[in-house]
From TrEMBL, chains A, B, C, D:
Gene3D superfamilies: Haem-degrading domain (3.30.450.150)
InterPro entries the record matches: GlcG_carb_metab_protein, PduO/GlcC-like, PduO/GlcC-like_sf
Descriptive protein name: Uncharacterized protein GlcG (DUF336 family)
Top-rank taxon: Bacteria
SUPFAM superfamilies xrefs: GlcG-like (SSF143744)
Length: 139, 139, 139, 139
């Protein structure tokens, strides 16, 4: 289980890492094991739709048990499959890097979704936040 | 405009006020002037659907320019009207106290939505957070 | 058929009438005979969700061939009926005064939807706009 | 912030530019910084679905902070990404040129969406309207 304090720590570190790397304004969401929001922050200057994108990345990771990079690979291999799966979730998944699973003792307890810079950099800051809070990340 | 730091200050004060008042675990969202999330926190022990409720309260306030108490009064007077208006927004509004407008120089710049305890107490902590951040609240 | 120039004239007169009557900031939409937008204006100071409400009023009028006042009476008499009808249109109808049919030689050619003040005043300015443009209004 | 008078000026100039260039009947929407309609006009002879297309172009620009040309390039590079992002917004985005960001002092304050002719010409008239109203355009 991710507590709110842990979720906030993940966001704080992810954002600090983004500043350190000189990234664009980031938006970061932490979802619980059921795909529901625990905490979210959108940095000044980010566009207004960033919550939906951050959540879409993390939501797909939790609901499918697949981090964004795996979803992306699958989408490239079998576009119709990921499209259909997405439809089954009302189109809410955003299957690209930046949706990172959060594990504790090998069990998925949630996911972090980051958007704002390139997908790979989004994923890197998510991993930094998750690990700093004492969890295992799967990007 | 509400900055992320101001949004986080609103949430911090609203949550502190909730603890001071001995309220149930709270969930607090801050939306911008277009109804889009800036920041959200869900306290430990709150049920997983709280983001949607907090957002629904704040979203209706922003989109209609009416705080939750006014929406509720209107819903009691003309249930079919508020039901229909809600439908026009895809059913996303939650027209009860706890959706509080944030004003700056008399202009609506966003809204805070709180859920977890009774609607009136939810509204009270939202007001506390908004005022502590230097804005005017309309509950 | 309503031309764009006629639609703009309806909006201009409705807005002027609103100022003359000292009403709140208004939002006015003109829909064609198929319920699709021809023109829309939202006055400064109106809340951001006003397009959906204005359209909902006019859309119900066109799609059911019933002005807002008739829809409202029906909703009060038979709430389940109007609720179900609204569901059949994806919840997009707002069945209150302010949705006014536009007729030409006795045939419905569109509708005007106004929102911002009380429903009856909204309807009054819609009628003023429609008649000034040389059409018959049914409110 | 874009006032209604400024929005109407953008539409007037965009339409005049379209006539000057001999374009097909145009439909032009102006959205605020939250993606909500301020003003819309559909020229005589345009097909009835044009509001949704104009809004979809402008809505994606605002919500993602990316003008239509950037969205299109991204959609060509990573079709599954833009498809998924679109799903996260309920399928409302139309990621092609003609969705043009409106900036004031370097900050996005809204977007103009134009549809009716080729996407590049749609974008050109949007830019003309935005600049004539004293704003910066990003197409």
């Amino acid at each position: 289980m991710i507590t709110l304090d842990e979720a906030r720590a993940m966001i704080a570190v992810a954002r600090a890492k983004g500043r350190e790397m000189g990234l664009n304004p980031l938006s970061v969401v932490v979802l619980d094991a059921g795909g529901h929001p625990l905490a979210f922050e959108r940095e000044d200057g980010a566009s207004p739709g960033r919550f939906e994108i951050a959540r879409g990345k993390a939501y797909g990771a939790v609901m499918l048990g697949m981090p964004g990079s795996v979803q992306k690979a699958r989408a490239e291999e079998q576009p119709f499959f990921m499209g259909a799966v997405n439809g089954a979730f009302g189109g809410r998944l955003v299957p690209v890097p930046g949706g990172v699973l959060v594990l504790q003792d090998g069990v998925v307890v949630g996911a972090v979704g980051v958007t704002g810079d390139t997908s790979d950099k989004d994923a890197a800051v998510a991993v930094a936040g998750i690990e700093a809070a004492g969890f295992e990340a799967r990007a």
